[in-house]
């Protein structure tokens, strides 16, 4: 195929492993923690519809573009962008797209790790029987007590960063390949079990109606739905690009992208179907915010047969899902340090991990001592905490912007011959992809941006 580069970091053993690793990156807190709570905050049905449209029309084409760019460049996103811009005889400033991705990954991981820490702490709380027979108020106060304690949050955040660094330092192949193969199907199984419990609450249809009945939505809601499509598929920051750089040249990209997006979407919808019936059955508020799953699922675990065991396993798997995502958030930066600074993987992982941990302190404090310290975000007219600001800036601005430029690069900057050769798919799929990334995706992202700032 098009070039004879090889990645200095190694290659996945098979296409299936690549799909599992990319699915491991995609399926994470975004699906189980974030999707339900932002759906709740933005009114349900229409939000879900916009999100699904964004996955199909923007997410899948950009995922194909990212995998393709990564595989062609075979280096960290920063060096890949530089190499491909040069190969196509284009402006070297495209390297900035790689840098923005690395920055976004770093900022996302800083708060992602804190939330993953909540999930870790819930493993022990569930195991200790804390939720047996718990009421909605009880679950709520257990959650509030956790997040008001900065020391405890800090301890869990530290532990999560350490385990993330440990895997990345060893190289992705050995640990991650094995872990995702075993764990992703299990997570899926446990989620199904909770959905079955949710069906028994008598409020299942209320949950479904909330998820799928259209209602009003504003420009900001649409922006959040689109941002989430990027976040949940790990797009716009080079995570999928760097995983693509470890993919062998023989494998089909289109099929892989569709499978990854499908698996990710099914997990998110299942999470919604598990959580909303429990919310309604217990008279809880769907717009409760980031604590939503931590205040609802324990109620289910506290009341179902074998709930302690299922609950423990569920939170363990949630931690694993977060872990496989966290690794992909830091990998682009680590790969770059190894390539350009000559650092060992271990040194690169520890130093980047340390800075990420440090920035994470801002999120730890956002839920307690800095709860009232807020910033007003331009165009949003809302006061946000440090955590909310990071989340808003990365998911709703940096990732869509990164995705927009990736689409422009793949469809307008790279020669048609290069992309056709790299994607090597059926002519009709190639044509459809090209129309989508060339016109529809950039237009959609721009319209949503303009709508969100009230310009249209
Ligand atoms: N996709 C992950 C999730 O849904 O939890 C989060 C994520 C991972 C975002 C990697 C971006 C990324 F590059």
Describe what you observe in this structure.
The protein has helices at residues 15-26, 29-41, 45-73, 77-87, 95-127, 136-147, 150-170, 172-199, 204-212, 219-232, 239-244, 253-281, 292-303, 307-341, 345-366, 386-413, 416-423, 427-452; strands at residues 375-376, 383-384. The protein has a single domain, classed as Amino acid/polyamine transporter I, CATH 1.20.1740. A hairpin with a 6-residue loop joins strand 1 and strand 2 (383-384). 76% of the residues lie in helices and 1% in strands. It contains 18 helices and two strands. A two-stranded antiparallel sheet has the order 1-2. With 456 residues, it is mostly helical. The protein binds 4-fluoro-L-phenylalanine. 4-fluoro-L-phenylalanine is lined by residues 25-26, 28-31, 105, 108, 231-232, 234, 237, 239, 325, 328-329.
Short summary:
This protein has 456 residues and is mainly α. The protein has helices at residues 15-26, 29-41, 45-73, 77-87, 95-127, 136-147, 150-170, 172-199, 204-212, 219-232, 239-244, 253-281, 292-303, 307-341, 345-366, 386-413, 416-423, 427-452, and strands at 375-376, 383-384.
Low-confidence stretches: none
Strand content: under 5%
Can you count the helices? Answer: 18
CATH A-level architecture: Up-down Bundle
CATH class membership: Mainly Alpha
Each distinct ligand: 4-fluoro-L-phenylalanine
Gross geometry: globular
Rg, Å, rounded: 21 Å
Strand tally:
2
Whole-number mean pLDDT: 92
Termini separation? 44 Å
**Helical residue percent band:** over 70%
CATH topology term? Amino acid/polyamine transporter I
What class, by secondary structure content?
Answer: mainly alpha
Q: Summarize the helix and strand pattern as letters.
A: HHHHHHHHHHHHHHHEEHHH
Largest sheet, spatial ordering of strands: 1-2
Number of domains: 1
| Biggest sheet features | 2 strands, antiparallel
